[in-house]
Design brief:
By secondary structure, the protein is an alpha+beta fold. Among the domains are: 41 residues; 55 residues. It is built from three helices and seven strands; from the N terminus they run H-E-E-H-E-E-H-E-E-E. The strands form two sheets. The chain has a five-stranded antiparallel β-sheet, with helices on one face. Helix 1 packs antiparallel against helix 2. The longest helix has 28 residues. The two termini are 73 Å apart.
């Protein structure tokens, strides 16, 4: 166990003990029959009227809760600011190598995927036609033509 972990445990234990003491102590004091519990003072004022006596309740605020909140905030802030980030190591897997390459015979250009072929041919004034080649053997597998919103296989007569 390193110093940082030990310090975090002591801080957490101290915060727990302080919270328990601040929670239990006022309740213990209230059970003694103390009429001035939490600084509340009752003052009776009598009037000579048909209503009888009137009770006025005055509350005195103390600095205790304010100081406890400030000190607790400092302790909690120190504990949170020294927390160590969690680092997760993930493997990055390279994408698999492409199995096919696409050749535009009109522009004499090679492309990596069919989307690239579709967008490339859109800007040129020739049919959207590509030849599909296998990467390992450079063998021509088929010819594709774009129409009707998708690629269709066609037998093209190319002069090879």
């Amino acid at each position: 166990m390193n110093f940082s972990t030990t310090m975090q445990r002591w801080t957490a234990t101290g915060l727990l003990a302080t919270t328990l003491m601040l929670t239990i102590a006022p309740a213990a004091s209230a059970g003694r029959g103390n009429r001035r519990y939490k600084g509340v003072e009752e003052v009776r004022v009598s009037h000579r009227s048909h209503r009888g006596s009137q009770v006025i309740v005055r509350e005195r605020g103390g600095a205790g809760p304010v100081l406890a909140g400030i000190i607790g905030g400092f302790i909690l802030g120190a504990a949170v600011s020294h927390a160590q980030p969690v680092v997760v190591h993930e493997r990055e897997c390279a994408p698999p190598p492409p199995r096919y390459r696409y050749y535009d015979p009109y522009c004499d250009e090679w492309m990596e995927d069919l989307d690239e072929c579709r967008f490339h041919a859109r800007d040129h004034r020739h049919p959207r036609v590509v030849r599909v080649y296998e990467v390992g053997s450079d063998r021509c597998l088929r010819d594709l033509r774009w129409y009707g919103g998708e690629w269709h296989e066609e037998d093209m007569d190319w002069d090879d």
